What does this fold into?
Amino acid sequence: MWPCGECRCDESGRGGDKWHIPRVIETTTLCARKMVTPFTWYLLMLHKHYLHGNLALPGGVTDQPGMYLEAMEIISEWVNHGKSGNS
Ligand SMILES: [Zn+2]
It folds into this structure.
């Protein structure tokens, strides 16, 4: 979708802004909003359940895929970062 919100990206998804989110995206001028995929939304939905102690797969924490646990950690980290008022 273009234009997306108030960002300055062009139709190709390139913008004047450079983004770098440690452990998430390397420095790029690609529109960060265009990087949000259906899988991103799926992980965010799983994170809500994760916070209530409901894991993705049966069993305990050690039964979960490493990628899932890392994604939950990163999302928690950035949610807390946002709550701290830092950008
Ligand atoms: Zn954009």
